[in-house]
TrEMBL record:
It comes from the Eukaryota. The lineage of its organism: Eukaryota, Metazoa, Spiralia, Gnathifera, Rotifera. This is Uncharacterized protein. The chain crosses the membrane at residues 354-376. The keyword Transmembrane applies. Keywords: Membrane, Transmembrane, Transmembrane helix.
């Protein structure tokens, strides 16, 4: 193994070596010596064996041959600086595999999304204005002009409450930061949670005032009992007011009809239980015609009807509908895409399909034959066992 082949690189040495053989070739010796340029003469036999007797490797790489042999079934394409129109075209053909990466991790929603709420007509009508409230207040002294269970007695306070509710609902909504991850889902959640948050605060105030039986400034829930001028007792006593069979001492939500409006323990509770009908009837809201009733035609586009109460409208924050303006083009610009990639599956031609079906059929035939042979052998084995046991039983 440690020997070298130096002698085979020298022709004189090779001839001398031939003379020592029993069957020397002599003058017939016609072998040529090895080429020193290709391999070093002092290379040992062990080194040559370690190289697997391979002098050199000639590599011929053909990617086209590799691709044809591989025959890939799918491919991924990456595009840099894609336009919106091209992106939409790719989205039509490769909607399931199209992936789009942005250079900005976060995008402000205000750059491509705006939401404009459309409030109920009541919140933009004259019935929440100071002019209307002054008009129904008139000359004052309402306690001398109307009884406590007459709607007109607490009407100014009812419409003041309505005006405050409209303002509160608008402020509550517009102060929300409209941050959304999935536009439709988060918008619906925002609309729901915003109204719930507002109503929870309002109901807490209502329950706190009502449960503590705070006396209304209009004396609509409690009234003072007149005392005799000759009485030495300076203590003023109060008695709860009743509306129908409901007593304000037991429930602060007592109300009763007063024409087409409502009167009750608190002006706020009265206006909340009032139906919309009166606001659309000129004779009901103002028979003098100084203030025009709401236009009946607007009800066609409204989600509320004449029998809807103010409370039902308030539960929606006085909002008829939301107008969402979503600009995908602005979103695309703000994204400032880095790259876009999509994958597609190579479809097989008719010949390949037929070959695949034949191969599948051939495989099924072979499997079926193997299973049939196994079942037959099992059956024959059981049959032979039964036949061998039968003579023993006869004996």
């Amino acid at each position: 193994m440690k020997s070298t082949l130096e002698c085979f690189y020298n022709l004189s040495c090779m001839i001398e070596l031939d003379r020592h053989f029993d069957l020397s070739l002599g003058s017939s010796f016609n072998f040529s010596n090895l080429n020193e340029i290709l391999n070093p003469p002092n290379e040992t036999i062990e080194t040559i064996i370690n190289k697997l007797m391979v002098d050199s490797w000639i590599s011929n790489i053909s990617f086209s041959s590799y691709y044809n042999t591989c025959s890939p079934s799918s491919s991924t394409v990456q595009i840099i600086k894609l336009s919106l129109s091209k992106y939409k075209d790719l989205l039509k053909d490769h909607s399931y595999s199209l992936q789009y990466s942005c250079s900005h991790i976060s995008i402000p929603y205000e750059t491509f999304l705006s939401i404009e709420p459309h409030f109920h007509d009541l919140c933009s009508s004259l019935f929440i204005s100071d002019e209307w409230i002054h008009y129904i207040y008139g000359e004052g002294h309402l306690s001398h002009r109307f009884s406590f269970d007459d709607y007109h007695y607490s009407a100014p306070e009812q419409f003041l409450s309505l005006s405050s509710l409209c303002k509160l609902s608008q402020e509550k909504l517009l102060s929300e930061n409209l941050l959304i991850e999935q536009i439709e889902i988060i918008l619906n959640r925002l609309q729901s949670t915003t109204s719930k948050s507002f109503l929870n605060i309002l109901n807490l105030i209502r329950e706190t005032i009502g449960s503590n039986m705070v006396m209304s400034a209009w004396s609509t829930n409690w009234e003072y009992i007149p005392q005799s001028a000759l009485s030495a007792d300076s203590t003023s006593y109060t008695a709860s007011v009743s509306y129908g069979e409901c007593n304000c001492g037991l429930s602060f939500k007592c109300t009763q009809s007063s024409g087409d409006m409502m009167s009750g323990c608190y002006p706020l509770e009265s206006i909340l239980q009032t139906k919309l009908y009166c606001f659309y009837d000129q004779n009901c809201i103002d028979s003098n015609g100084n203030f025009t009733s709401l236009n009946m035609s607007t009800l066609k586009k409204s989600q509320f009807n004449l029998n809807s109460t103010i409370e039902s409208i308030l539960n929606n924050l006085m909002i008829e509908k939301y107008k969402n303006n979503l600009s995908y083009e602005n979103y695309f610009k703000q994204c400032q895409q880095l790259s876009c990639s999509y994958s597609y599956i190579k479809t097989h031609d008719v010949t390949q399909t037929i070959i695949s079906l034949i191969s599948l059929y051939g495989g099924l035939v072979i499997i079926t034959r193997c299973l049939a042979i196994i079942f037959v052998k099992i059956y024959q084995s059981k049959k032979n066992r039964i036949n061998s046991e039968a003579p023993q039983q006869n004996i």
